Amino acid sequence: MATICGTDAAYTLDELEADAAGIAAELTARGLGRGDRVLLKADNSIGYVTAVLALVHLGASIVLIDHRDSPAATCDVLSRAKVKACLVDDAAAAASVAPVPAILLPELAAAARPVPGGVDAGAWAALPDGLLMSSSGSTGRPKVVVKSGAVFLANLRRTADTLGYTRSDVLAPFLPFSHQYGLSIVLLAWLVRCSLVVVPYRRLDHALGLAGLRGATVLDAAPSTYRSMLNITRQRPVLRAALQRARMLCVGAAPLNHRLVAEYRAEFGKPLLDGYGSTELGNISFAVPGNPVATGRPVRGVHVRVVDDSDVAVAPGEVGELLVRTPDLPTGVLDDAGEVAPEPGGWFRTGDFGLLDGAGNLHVLGRKRAVHRMGYTLYPDMIEARVAEAGCCAKVVAVPDERHGSRLVAFVEDEAGHAPAYWRERMARILPPYEVPNRVVVVDSFPLNRNGKPDGRRLEELAATA
Q1: For residues 460 and 454, is the Cβ–Cβ distance under 8 A?
Q2: Could you tell me which residues come within 8 angstroms of residue 220 by beta carbon, excluding any fewer than 6 positions away?
Q3: Do 424 and 293 fall within a single domain?
Q4: What's the confidence (pLDDT) of residue 389?
Q5: Pick from 199, 386, 404, 455: most CB atoms within 10 A?
Q6: pTM of the shown model
Q7: By residue range, what is the domain housing residue 197?
Q8: Which residues in 235-247 are b (16+ Cβ under 10 Å) and which e?
Q9: pLDDT tens, 320-349?
């Protein structure tokens, strides 16, 4: 029987659905109804999962925001999304959403009474704005992406087919539930009727222990989290169980380093299975146990083209911009006035670089961010991909320079602490002179944003003073 468990509680999925339906009834009694926009600002918990299902059952438009977002960022989303009420998990979060009415999740759960019969997603699926999510905003102001409930669920059903989830699976996401990746795992568990472990993902020792105890079969995390897991399990071998027993170690949210993949194969005898997706398009492609190559092939119904700067398709193996045609397009994005600017349809420009190999596997290399240096047009993510093949895990940042157009600063993640000259010499062997960074800064680890991605804004700040 499917269960939803945390560090100190466990419920069957039927019990959780009854609680969710009860909360939906309580929200109705408080004046909320179908189509109302309700913001959810809370940390991961069983209560969070219950609240999401309650809002689905109510047929509300769900607005998600990271629970650590500042009051200013929260107010920006509240205003643009025209939120009617907020569900929060503590007094600090309640204060951050004022003057919009806030309802504390513990108080709401205590006031509600279970209603057996399951969660009905019909009304929610019919909403063109069933789900509003902020993009990661690693380099600028986050966009608020608007998706229909039906589109989101359809993408998850095809995801489940691709990854072969079954009712016997136990999913353990080491991710915030307030973003595309984490929310997908929560609702996949509900759709498949399999078990979900709500791990304390910011305490990896506790999280790995709980995942191992509950027999997790699928782990999901960002590359930086898998790096930390590897370090912890080397120091505390008893925590290896969660990684050894899982049938799939899935990764997403940021580019995957080849060195980390090799280390997991050596340590655990299994690959890290990379995936590609976005807040706008949902899940696009996955590596799977039978095809653990790059980010695998696109999920059913999704098509990927690789084009040059003239939008002409390139041959397999050649690098270009990734365009995606999918039935999972968003309704649109919120403009500054809070209106939905519709998505035009057709081929969606991802802004990412990559290639399709001869077997149809998608290799995502990074963002298409052009800079100009010494008369050349360069792409920092492409430079990162080239040096990664030589065993160098780097993030390259361009700093404006009056003489040359740009000055390149490379941050190299190196726990061994090699000197900057060592890495610059290695880069110079494989890069043309105009791509060799002016400065190399060696760090133990990259600064990360809340999704576990390298924090582009923080790296730019550091590069400006390097």
Answers
A1: no
A2: 171, 172, 173, 174, 175, 181, 185, 250, 251, 252
A3: no
A4: 78
A5: 199
A6: 0.84
A7: 3-356
A8: eeeebbbbbeebe
A9: 999 999 999 999 999 888 889 898 889 999
